[in-house]
Amino acid sequence: MKSTIYYFSATGNSLEIARQISKGLDNCTIKSMTSQLPKKPVGGPDEVIGFVFPVYYLDMPLFMEQFVENLNILPGTYCFAITNYARYKGNALGNLEEILQNKNIQLNYADDVKMPGNYIVSYPPPNPDKLKEVLKNSRIKVNNIAKSISNNDEKPVEKSLLSRIFTKHLKFIIFGSISKWDEKFVSDNKCTCCGQCAEVCPVENIEIVNCHPIWQHHCERCLRCIQWCPTEAIQYGKKTVGVKRYHHPNVTVENFIETKD
Ligand SMILES: Cc1cc2nc3c(=O)[nH]c(=O)nc-3n(C[C@H](O)[C@H](O)[C@H](O)COP(=O)(O)O)c2cc1C
User: Which CATH class is domain 179-236?
Assistant: First the structure.
């Protein structure tokens, strides 16, 4: 049996979950949803396809939606989706299920995991004690999820009509103004022109011009550029000045590059 986990992760939480699940699966490959779409159809009977991703604005990341819509999945595939979030999970799994249903693909197993929050423009990461507790609880939950998935168990998406209606409107409002959002990114004099911000941006929204990052106005707001800058030289206006950066303790920036095509 072959298994593939498609993931997106800005700060490593989803990647760590994907790795933990992959240990219980035969012949499992972890692939980034920022890579090129596979040219051939994927999955099929006796194959497993999984999606692991963070909640963005009560939904899935926008480019992930496009990735899944365009992914050619063969009928009969055992499909799972695990999302993770800091406070409000919204209807990310319900919206993903709808996309799969439109392709006549069943979402066999769906669940969510609470993880440390990384939306640095609104709040700092948890303090060390809280961080330890959240990561410990998540490991326990993901362990159980991994066992269920390796047994090909079924778990339907929890339905919430309210969040379903709400997420549709929220997405419209948020991504209606997508182009203007990145105008507040700046790099300060700590910038060493290393180019890591451009390298980690999942949607190639950063160009290095005269040794400075320039954002190209199609930002998806994952904030990888801020979180992974080795000198903490990138700020979002004044909101992130002096705020601690976050990434999952087991994940390095090279890990993202390894799982790219
Ligand atoms: C753009 C953006 C939007 C987010 N929206 C939500 C949200 O609606 N609800 C929530 O609980 N967490 C939200 N978060 C927090 C992440 O879902 C959470 O920290 C997740 O574990 C990050 O996973 P990653 O490290 O794999 O990127 C958001 C984070 C970002 C960057």
Answer: alpha beta
Please report, for the chain, the start and end positions of each structural domain, with discontinuous segments joined by +.
Answer: 2-165, 179-236
Question: Is residue 216 a contact partner of residue 179, using CB atoms and an 8 Å limit?
Answer: no
213 CB under 6 A from ligand 1? no
Task: Please compute the mean of the pLDDT values over residues 52-73 and round it to a whole number.
Answer: 94
Distance 219 CA to ligand 1 centre (A): 15
Its CATH architecture, for the domain 2-165, is 3-Layer(aba) Sandwich (3.40)
> How many whole angstroms from 13 Cα to the centroid of ligand 1?
10
The SS3 call for residue 97 is helix
Q: Give me the amino acid identity at 115.
A: M
Distance CA 184, CA 226 (A): 12
Rounded to whole angstroms, the Cα distance separating 156 from 94 reads: 10
Bridge partners (DSSP) of residue 110 are 81
Q: Which of 8, 53, 55 to mutate to test the pocket of ligand 1 (most atoms within 8 A of CB)?
A: 55
Tokens linked to 101? 């249903």
Residues 6+ apart with CB under 8 A from 129: none
Is any atom of ligand 1 closer than 6 Å to the C-beta of 202?
A: no
C-alpha atoms less than 13 angstroms from C-alpha of 167 in its C-beta half-sphere: 23
Whether 226 is in the pocket of ligand 1, judged by its Cβ within 6 Å, is no
Would the CB of 87 count as within 6 Å of ligand 1?
A: yes
pLDDT band at 245 (very low <50, low <70, confident <90, very high): very high
pTM (predicted TM-score): 0.95
Q: Given the DSSP bridges, would you call strands 185-187 and 206-209 parallel, antiparallel or unpaired?
A: unpaired
